[in-house]
Design brief:
Nucleotidyltransferase, domain 5, five-stranded mixed beta barrel, DNA Polymerase, Chain A, domain 1, Palm domain of DNA polymerase, alpha+beta, globular, 596 residues, 27 strands, 3 domains
């Protein structure tokens, strides 16, 4: 059978000792799970004795295959051994055994998760449409097509991407209110008193065991018990086939609390596409609440990465985005509003609904950018929404390296010397603002200064020389530090940034030429996502855990940046201007005649 589906999520399970990729997908309102048992995990081995090393690997380890391949290593074609394993767990178990073999110098790409490797190698982009061809099966392990109302397809052909177009995802925001007479709520004792839900498909309500006054808008869905409240929440998600569920600090509070109370009350939170419960998986330094085929986005994490604020409360973020105050109830007084009833209870209901409506509005404002980043980076939205911008840029580069036939470097670690060096970089040029109120200012701004410098000066570790060279004319030499970069060939990272900036300029031209407001909006989101990735590239050069970490590259970029802005300021002064303020990639000036 053949179906056009939108890929939402991915994982893998084990069947008959083999890994089976599961792609959670949708065709309209129909839930579809695609199965692929043909993909095998692998890594690369560096050796100076390829044939002997291959034999040594086969003699000592249980591998599917070990073969000689030619790949690029920092743009230079090099010999590698591609070692394929039967299962990701076998790869993980044998990494140290591989390192210990006599002919093995180094192992590479051993730390790329299996499902991420699958997406890159197969060029599958989450949140986009593909053509799936395969055999329909009734059941697979715990999946049952009839019981769970899903279609299960075992793929027989590679997925084919469909021309992209904006997808309309069903989004639901939720928030809990808890009776907390002792301050910080305790899930063993303190009941959930309200579950607010708001959606982009018409449901906006507060589920509760109490209701609001007759003269208020009837948005409260009254039930008999906390148990029924949670059951109603589950029913709303299932009946409306939600694609994306959003919360605010829901990784740390709402989902853990809901899971604890559901377990205590004997309620199944079987809201995954396969009717599985909420699971917690490690993402960065924290645990994230994950649901199979239902994408959970915690907007608190998203906003911490995309806004610079002194506080990241829902009220503060909402005001920053929309310039409006939202309803607020002091957290420590929630139980009093609940217990007092009357107008206080009405205010608490209003607050609960306002929380989820505000969260939904923030989601509708920020998710398009995150969806676009998901498509560019090629990793699941669940992961991308929890990645720091540096991690997003790194995974984008890892994907580009695969298509360039480049074996990615290993992470270099973050020892004390690396951190000290990173902190020692002087950074961009800053001139403190001149005190006072200024009018008729002229702004000078470099377009994408650091990405442009990386491209024009070919700043990349694979073309860098630190010592003496025969012909300096063949190099771009950084001011202050004298770090040299070959003018050709183009380095790996400059080549990637060059491509994405050219794509951004193409999108901006298309946006300017378009007369369709919706198309303009979609294109603007695309160019913003590309800009964010390009601008991040500079910062991660100086991050010790970055695969392409290079303190020298970071120093060279900022030294050229300082040179350009200082020379531009000097040139402006020659034309009769004087500088009011300067910072990194731009400055403000006034004409001297106006100076008193």
């Amino acid at each position: 059978m053949q179906r056009n589906v939108v890929i939402l999520d991915i994982d893998y399970v084990t069947f008959e000792d083999k890994p089976v990729i599961r792609l959670f997908s949708k065709d309209g309102d129909k839930n579809i799970i695609l199965l692929d048992d043909t993909f095998e995990p692998y890594l690369y081995v560096v050796s100076d004795n390829i044939e002997e090393c291959i034999q040594e690997i086969k003699d000592n380890l249980d591998v599917v295959n070990a073969e000689h391949v030619i790949k690029k290593d920092f743009q230079i074609e090099s010999d590698f051994i591609k070692v394929t394993f039967k299962h990701p767990q076998e790869l993980a178990k044998n990494r140290d055994n591989l390192r210990d073999l006599e002919n093995v110098i180094q192992i590479r790409e051993f730390d790329i998760p299996f499902y991420r490797r699958y997406l890159m190698d197969k060029d599958i982009i989450p949140m986009t449409e593909v053509v799936a061809v395969g055999e329909e099966v009734e059941s697979f392990l715990k999946l049952d097509s009839t019981k769970q109302d899903i279609t299960i397809i075992k793929l027989t052909e590679p997925l084919k991407r469909v021309e992209e177009y904006p997808q309309n995802f069903r989004i639901l925001s939720f928030d809990l209110e808890v009776r907390n007479p002792h301050g910080m709520p305790n899930s063993d004792e303190d009941e959930i008193i309200m579950i607010g839900v708001a959606s982009n498909f018409g449901i906006n309500q507060v589920i509760s065991t109490k209701t609001n006054s007759d003269d208020r808008d009837d948005f409260v869905n009254q039930v008999d018990s906390e148990r029924e409240m949670i059951q109603e929440f589950v029913r709303i998600i299932k009946d409306n086939n939600v694609d994306i569920i959003v919360g605010y600090n829901s990784d740390n509070f709402d989902f853990p609390y809901l899971k604890d109370r559901a377990k205590l009350l004997g309620v199944d939170l079987d809201i995954g596409m396969d009717e599985s419960d909420v699971k917690y998986i490690r993402r960065g330094y924290a645990n994230a609440a994950s649901l199979k085929g239902l994408i959970h986005v915690d907007l608190y994490l998203v906003m911490r990465r995309y806004m610079s604020l002194e506080r990241y409360t829902l009220e503060r973020v909402y005001y920053e985005l929309f310039g409006e105050e939202k309803i607020d109830v002091p957290g420590e007084q929630i139980f009093e509003f609940w217990d007092n009833g009357g107008e206080a209870l009405d205010n608490l209901f209003d607050y609960s609904l306002d929380d989820v409506v505000s969260t939904l509005k923030i989601a509708e404002q920020t998710l398009p950018l995150n969806l676009e980043l998901t498509r560019i980076i090629g990793q699941p939205l669940f992961d991308v929404s929890r990645m720091a911008t540096g991690q997003q840029a790194e995974w984008f580069l890892v994907k580009q390296a695969y298509f360039d036939d480049e074996v990615v470097p290993n992470k270099q670690g973050s020892n004390f010397a690396d951190r000290a060096n990173a902190e020692d970089n002087e950074g961009g040029y800053v001139k403190e603002p001149e005190t006072g109120l200024h009018e008729n200012l002229v702004q000078f701004d470099f377009r994408s200064l650091y990405p442009s410098l990386i491209i024009s000066k070919n700043i990349s570790p694979d073309v860098m020389e630190l010592g003496d060279v025969e012909n300096e004319d063949e190099y771009n030499i950084s001011p202050e530090h004298g770090i040299k970069f070959k003018k050709s060939p183009q380095g790996f990272i400059p080549s990637v940034i060059d491509k994405i900036l050219q794509e951004r300029f193409r999108i901006k031209r298309e946006m300017k030429a378009s007369n369709d407001p919706q198309q303009k909006k979609a294109l603007d989101v695309q160019q913003q996502a590309i800009k964010r990735l390009a601008n991040t590239m500079y910062g991660i050069y100086g991050f010790p855990r970055f695969r392409w970490y290079s303190f020298e590259c970071a120093k060279a970029i900022t030294s050229w940046g300082r040179q350009y802005i200082k020379s531009s300021i000097k040139k402006a002064e020659e034309f009769g201007f004087y500088t009011i303020y300067a910072d990194t990639d731009g400055f403000y000036v006034k004409y001297k005649k106006e100076k008193e």
